[in-house]
Amino acid sequence: MKQKLTYLILILAVLGSCALFLTYHTYGNIEFALALRLKKILGFILVGIACSFATVSFQTLTQNKLLTPNILGLDSLYVMLQTLSIFLLGSHNLTSLSSLGNFFLSIALMMSVSTVLAFSLLRQFKHNLFLFLMIGMILGTFFGNISSFLQILLDPNEYDHLQGKLFASFSNVKADHLLVASIIIALLCLFLWWLAPQLDVLHLGNDYAVNLGIDVRALQLMSLLAISALVGVSTALVGPTSFLGFIVANISYQITRTYRHRAIFITGSLIAILLLVFGEFLVEHIFSFNTTLNVIIEFTGGCYFIGQILYKRNGNKG
Q1: Cystine design at 268: which of 60, 123, 242, 252 (Cβ 3.0–4.6 Å)?
Q2: pTM of the entire structure?
Q3: E runs forming strands in 4-150
Q4: Which residue, 300, 284, 304, 309, is CA-closest to 24?
Q5: 45-68 tens-digit pLDDT
Q6: How far apart are CA 307 and CA 318, in angstroms?
Q7: What are the residues whose beta carbons fall under 8 Å from the beta carbon of 88, sequence distance 6 or more?
């Protein structure tokens, strides 16, 4: 009953926030406002669900609630791939490529490279969390340095074109991208939903999971494929959103107090959508576009991350 009540409260909060966002300050142009804002709402829903499913699953694989898939430098990887594509092909050739073709290309590159990196690192350093973190951060720095070097060599016009693709933006989401992304995210989330009972067992630890008949290596590979694809789709759709998954996953753990991934998936998705909708409402109507949603997420997530580290540190001392 408590879990159902939590779902009900979150659903009502999400619906209320969406209604407020869609109808506030329409200035009589309700049809125009709805056409513009509904696209953003769908983007919020897709990114929120993708971040929740990907982060919760990744934290189960790594057995650590402070990690997100971005610890492997996936944001920096996205920036490097976008920079490399413009550096090698040029913005004119990319512009001539269909919008959906460019979208699929970004997803394919992110999924293939990030899956290889994540699986190889998890296999080599799963018993040494410190090395796992260090290698991930080093890779992120490496990708970032390559991107910075290539950006210096770019033509100013191509650099300006690149910058428009590197910042998280829900305002420039294209309708055809939303349709494709919704299909891909739905399939991937259904796949992780199907794997949820095995992830529940893996939550006990790798050794217990093996003893209970789980093929841990196959589960890790399948989950990482889905996680990498989810991160790739959400990043290609709106740009990097580093701390969103961390925020919603840890809040979900505190609210649900359960090991069942399906309950955490639902709770995390609702919280993510609520945060995104309310955050965009603040950006547009309170801050008057003087900041961006990504800045609010990064600032809030950074503060929450530091708070979690301090809390766990003090808890361990106690």
Answers
A1: 252
A2: 0.84
A3: none
A4: 284
A5: 998 999 999 999 988 888 888 778
A6: 16
A7: none
